[in-house]
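Progress note, sequence design subtask.
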């Protein structure tokens, strides 16, 4: 009886080991980006980032002229994400802006974006040039990153509170974004990243 149990156990263990082996997922074969692909995604990424930036800042400046920072901030709140979304649709890509210090909680980085941001932050503190990158994140998806810098125009909403960013405008921003961290910047500072995900197999804009 004892011996039967022993053999039964041995058999089961062996069986379990074999099944486990068979079930082991095969490591997905990821073929690295070719030079041609890298060049294409870098070019498309930059094109999209510039087009999105132009669309956003054009509307933002118009809103600022219409009703000052407080009005523009409210406009931005409702308009920035839909603009990015509609351009995402045109290019068949997912377009985001993200940062280590976000204003809009929806712009918080995912894990991959966070490590990209941390890499750029290290380069920024080491005074290395911040360059756009195209990286493969799985066989289907390419991530494009490009640094976003602050210029004088941005300071009225992202500058030093009580100085370049007026206290009353900050109060409006805070009421829209209670968890806002995106202040205290100077002209020329590194602010965050464009993060664009492409379908690797989609070649041309729709
Ligand atoms: C009128 C105020 C205003 C101005 C001017 C402004 N921003 Fe913003 N910014 C906002 C608001 C409001 C949000 C949050 C809404 C959103 O997600 O776009 C935001 C969000 C962002 C984000 C997305 C990450 C986050 O923190 O949520 C980035 C990056 C950014 N701004 C950079 C800039 C840069 C660079 C400039 C100048 C070229 C600029 N902003 C000018 C109000 C402004």
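Output:
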């Amino acid at each position: 009886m004892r011996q039967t149990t022993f053999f039964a156990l041995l058999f089961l263990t062996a069986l379990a080991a074999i099944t486990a082996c068979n079930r082991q997922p095969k490591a997905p074969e990821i073929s690295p980006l070719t030079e041609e692909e890298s060049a294409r995604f870098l070019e498309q990424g930059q094109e999209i980032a510039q087009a999105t930036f132009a669309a956003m800042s054009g509307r933002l400046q118009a809103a600022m002229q219409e009703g000052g920072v407080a009005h523009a901030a409210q406009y931005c709140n409702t308009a920035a994400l839909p603009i990015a979304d509609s351009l995402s649709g045109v290019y068949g890509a997912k377009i985001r802006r993200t940062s280590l210090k976000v204003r809009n909680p929806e712009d918080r980085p995912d894990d991959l974006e966070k490590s990209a941001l941390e890499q750029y932050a290290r380069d920024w503190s080491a005074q290395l040039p911040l360059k756009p990158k195209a990286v493969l994140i799985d066989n289907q998806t390419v991530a494009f990153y490009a640094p976003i810098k602050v210029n004088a125009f941005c300071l009225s909403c992202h500058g030093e509170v009580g100085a370049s960013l007026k206290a009353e405008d900050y109060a409006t921003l805070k009421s829209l974004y209670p968890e806002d961290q995106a202040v205290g910047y100077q002209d020329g500072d590194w602010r965050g990243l464009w993060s664009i995900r492409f379908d690797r197999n989609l070649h041309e804009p729709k």
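The chain has a mean pLDDT of 85. Work on this subtask will continue into the next period as scheduled.
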